[in-house]
Write a structure and sequence with these properties.
It is built from 2 helices and 5 strands. The chain has 70 residues and is an alpha+beta fold. The protein has one domain: 3-Layer(aba) Sandwich (Ribosomal Protein L9, domain 1), CATH 3.40.5.
Length: 70
Amino acid sequence: MNKKTDKMENTNVKVTVLANGPLMVEGSIRVVKKDGSSETKEQKAFLCRCGHSQNKPYCDGSHKSNNFQD
């Protein structure tokens, strides 16, 4: 693995915990999934905190119907 390509170029990433909802991640991030595949999100991503999303690791709004509370 090339350490240079594993390093994130942009260090301006902001993570906001949304009340009773997902994590909002702003900035360029690389998401590595459990199967080892990865994808880059360039501007904004919403990551599930409730555990009910059918689109993990991303939020699909399931926290609302499951009354997720932080």
